Amino acid sequence: MIISFDIGGSAIKGGVAHSEADITPLGRRPTPKDDFAAFVDTLRAIIAETGEQPTRLAFSIAGVVDPDTQRLTCANIPCIHGRNLAADLEAELGLPVLIANDADCFAMAEADLGAGRGHRIVLGAILGTGVGGGVVADGRLINAAGGFAGEWGHGPALASHAGNPPVAIPAFPCGCGQTGCVDTVGGARGLERLHKTLHEIDLSSQEIIDDWLKAEAKAARTIDVFVDLVASPLALTVNITGATIVPVGGGLSNVEELLAELDKAVRQRILRKFDRPLVVRSECRVEPGLIGAALLGLKAEAAETTV
């Protein structure tokens, strides 16, 4: 039995996995952000809640493990930031521990149980508050040892002009330390930033989407620019990875009309031509982090058993 955890800045969620077909979410508890002992105690309480002894623990975390040092970058939870978290938790809890990025876990869930089933290469894309992603090839997570593969939202890839007719787009500073990242315009906050830049109007992403669906001119212009900016780097990522499906999660994935526009624009820009949708809504809508972490834990357990 595997226990998986989805670690967020506000809550820790747990789940029990006996097999791919038997993954059950547990409750949630507040995340102790500044006290590592309290963080570990919270994990112990969730483990005890199951009434079973797990063979492994698997974690989905909004952070990145350095593949060379195994240290975690997770700025929104200071008590685990900079730690070799897997080693520290193994020492505290006495169980094998696997740590993975939440976008990677999302990609794993979609590859095995979601829209990516039957595809050799799956690019999971997140369009939420910001932009993220992960890649699964032949059932294996590319970032199994940690790292940034699939993070198409970062790097100075933003076009300087976009839309029809083209309009100049500033290279906005990004939280990763660079400027001109897709993350600065591609998520909900980016959509709001674009609308403000284009029209000097402050609206929420939901208000912009609602206006666009009503054919309001300013919102239509913003969405036109948004799709143009996001589609090109996503198409490049598809070309490089060879992905044959791109399940999309995050809040903007709920707007099927927006995904349809993005899919059309991406398919116009890639080398391989598809006569079916490529950029699609994810199917694992409930707890994809928990599911993906559980799948990674189950795969690790199976690999050890066969050795």
Automatic annotation (TrEMBL):
EC number of this enzyme: 2.7.1.59
Protein name: N-acetylglucosamine kinase
Keywords for the protein's UniProt record, in alphabetical order: ATP-binding, Carbohydrate metabolism, Kinase, Metal-binding, Nucleotide-binding, Transferase, Zinc
Keyword tRNA-binding among record annotations: no
GO MF, any single term: ATP binding
InterPro entries with a match to the protein in the record: ATPase_NBD, ROK
Lineage of the organism: Bacteria, Pseudomonadati, Pseudomonadota, Alphaproteobacteria, Hyphomicrobiales
Species per Swiss-Prot/TrEMBL record: Rhizobium altiplani
Catalytic reactions on record: N-acetyl-D-glucosamine + ATP = N-acetyl-D-glucosamine 6-phosphate + ADP + H(+)
Top-level EC class as recorded in UniProt: transferase
